[in-house]
Specification:
The protein has 303 residues and is mainly alpha-helical. The protein is globular, with a radius of gyration of 21 Å. The longest helix is centred in the N-terminal third of the chain and has 22 residues, at 87-108. The protein has 2 domains: 2-56, no CATH class; 65-302, Fido-like domain (Fic-like fold, Orthogonal Bundle), CATH 1.10.3290. The chain contains 12 helices and 3 strands; from the N terminus they run βββαααααααααααα.
């Protein structure tokens, strides 16, 4: 059984998880420090599950040994292939990814654009005659800049990086919200066609603080693919900005993968219903596993 123990050290109060079990005639304990504050119930339950899982010797939450083997094989194949490419070939490959990823991510975010239009804008520098809305062109160009930004960024995932990335996406598109969290704008949002209601702006700052604490505690514990999928899932559910959260969450998912030398994940627009289904299972039912499985599926298919 796992329970929370409150204790004092050097006059300060702390909390920790304790798991007691009998081995022969002895009572043994495993302990995990929680810190000075008691965590929210939902987060605490997840930590308890992870704590028990690690005691049992299961390294990762949702990925099996076979999953890890397939994921790592894909990573190794990808890195071997990349090493064989010339500088020009690497640039060409990145450009091809940018075009397809920008298309899928923009379509998933509701931008009405064709793959051919994106190719002409990003590859040829031509604005197609049937695009009269220059705001749309700027959105696509900004998304390309966002991909280039995450491919070069070596720092930490924090408020400043998220704001910088959002500013890149929305500068010249919607300047009044570019790089500003909803709690700064005092703005609530709704997700079209979804029953899920994102957190109110009054609650968002605390939720984001807990998100970054979660990330710091898990970034070395979770497998990079699990971590990338969970960051995507949590950010798109928090909706930290007034717009552009889904694009931002997919960029950050790939930033985590690239940072650890894993290939990228592109979610195709053709699979939009399944994408929304697994999002719903987390946002409405609190079930993370289907989304992890979904990202794993496209990681293995794409690469």
């Amino acid at each position: 059984m796992v329970f929370v123990e409150k204790y004092k050290s050097w006059g300060r109060t702390y909390y920790r998880l304790v798991h007691s079990y009998r081995k022969g005639n002895k009572i043994l304990q495993f302990k995990k420090q929680l810190g000075k504050e008691l965590l929210p119930k939902k987060r605490l339950e997840q930590i308890k599950k992870d704590f028990l899982r690690k005691i049992k010797g299961d390294k990762y939450t949702y990925l099996s040994g076979k999953d890890i083997e397939k994921i790592e094989n894909k990573k190794n194949e990808y890195n071997k292939e990349i090493k064989k490419l010339s500088k020009l070939e690497k640039e060409q490959r990145l450009k091809e990814f940018i075009i397809r990823f920008t298309y899928d991510s923009s379509k998933l975010s509701g931008v009405d654009v064709t793959l051919r239009q994106i190719y002409l804008i990003l590859k040829e520098g031509i604005i197609p005659q049937n695009i009269r809305n220059l705001r749309k062109v700027r959105e696509l160009e900004n998304h390309e800049k966002g991909i280039l930004a995450i491919s070069k960024y070596k720092g930490k995932l924090n408020n400043q990086f998220m704001k910088r990335l959002h500013r890149i996406l929305f500068l010249g598109v919607e300047n009044e919200i570019a790089g500003k969290f909803r709690y700064e704008l005092k703005r609530n949002v709704k997700i079209a066609g979804a029953s899920y209601v994102p957190p109110k702006w009054q609650d968002l700052k605390k939720i984001m603080t807990n998100f970054f604490k979660w990330y710091e505690s898990e970034r070395k514990e979770m497998h990079p693919l699990e971590l990338a999928a969970m960051v995507h899932l949590k950010i798109i559910s928090m909706q930290p900005f007034g717009d552009g959260n889904s694009r931002l969450s997919r960029l950050l998912m790939n930033w985590i993968l690239w940072k650890r030398n894993y290939p990228s994940v592109d979610i195709p627009i053709e699979d939009i219903e399944n994408y929304y289904d697994v999002l719903d299972q987390y946002q409405i039912e609190g079930n993370e596993k289907p989304f992890i499985e979904y990202v794993k599926k496209w990681y293995l298919k794409n690469n």
